[in-house]
C-alpha cells in the first residue's frame, strides 16, 4: 500500500493547494535576516529574486510559501510588524485557471496560448531554417530557426528557465513576425537565430509534473535534480549569486558548461561569435519588466560600451512604454549580482573575438508580480507587442551602427 502510494504520488502532478505568494517592498536588513531564518526551515520557493541570497536591502521579494507554513509565517510577520502583501492566495487555483484558459492542449499551434514542447518543435519545423544543435539531458532535441540572409546576426533565445512560460511564447511570436510580418523587412540586412525552448526537459516538466520548476532535469549531482542553466555559463562561473548546493534553485553545476543545454548553445553560437557576425545576444526571461545588460557577475565591472548599452536600453524602454504604457527598467545593477549567466558569457565571448561594442541583454518580460510566472494567456499578445517595439529599436540600431 505504501509503495503504491509512493508510486502514485511520484507520477502525479505536484499540487499547490492553498500555497501562497507573499510580496515585500523596501526590505530592511532585519527583515532580510528574518526571511533567511524562516527559509532555513520553510524552504521557500523564491520567485523574485531567485534565491534567498539575492535579497537586497531596499529591494522587493515575491516568495512562494507552502500552505504548511503559511499561517505560522503570517502570524510571525504580524507580530513583528513586518509588512507584506498576499499576492496569490491559492496557487493551485491560479494554476487550474491557467490550465483551463491559457494552455493549448494538443490542438493546432496557437500563438495566443501557451504551447507545449512538442507543439513548439513542430511549429519550428515548419520554418525553412529549422536546425537542431544537440540534445538535452533527457534526450530531447535542442533546436532553433535561422531566418534571414543578412550578414549581421541577432540571436534570441527563450525558455532557459522552465517556468517562465511567456518567454517561449515570445520567441514563437517573433519567429512568425520575422517570417510573415513586421520583421520581414530586415531579412536582407540581418539573420535572426531564434532558439525558442533552450531548456526543453525543464519546460516539459512544468507541463507534466511541477509547474514551478526552474532548472534543467540533470541528475547525478547528489540527491537533487537540476542545474540552473543561467548559472552554468562561463562568466565568473560559481561566483557570487550562484549556489554550490545541488538542491538550490540557483545551483551552478559542477563546472562551467557542464550541462548539455548550455554547452550546446555555446557550440552553436561560437562560429557567429568568432567571425564577428553576432552583433546582439538577447535572452528572454520573465518576470519583473527589466532590460539587463552586462555585467551581472560583478556590479563594479563596467562593460566597455556601458554607455551604449544604457542608451540602447533606454531607447528600448521608451519604445515599449509607447505601446501599452508599461514600464521596463533598463540597467546593469537593477537586480542582484549573479554569476554564470548567459548574457555575460556571450558578451565576453564577443568582446574576446574582437567585437568592441557587443550588445547583450537579458529581457525580463511581464508582469511586475501580480501573476508572476502564471501570466494569463490573454496577456501574451500585449506582451509580445511591446517587446516587438524594443526589437525594432535594437534591430535598427544594429543595422545602422554595427
Ligand atoms: N532573473 C535572471 C536570472 O536569475 C536574471 C539574470 C540577469 N542578471 C542579473 N543581474 N540578475 O537568471
Ligand atoms: Zn529567468
From TrEMBL:
- Please name the SUPFAM superfamilies in this protein's record: Protease propeptides/inhibitors, Zn-dependent exopeptidases
Q: Which PROSITE patterns does this one have?
A: CARBOXYPEPT_ZN_1, PEPTIDASE_M14
The residues responsible for catalysis, as annotated, are 364
- Superkingdom is Eukaryota
- Protein's UniProt name: Oidioi.mRNA.OKI2018_I69.chr2.g6783.t1.cds
Q: Does the keyword Zinc apply?
A: yes
* Residue stretches making up the Peptidase M14 domain: 107-398
CDD domains with a match to the protein in the record:
M14_CP_A-B_like
Family indicated by similarity: Belongs to the peptidase M14 family.
Going by the UniProt record, its keywords in alphabetical order are: Carboxypeptidase, Disulfide bond, Hydrolase, Metal-binding, Metalloprotease, Protease, Signal, Zinc
State the needed cofactors, names only. Answer: Zn(2+)
Organism this protein belongs to = Oikopleura dioica (Tunicate)
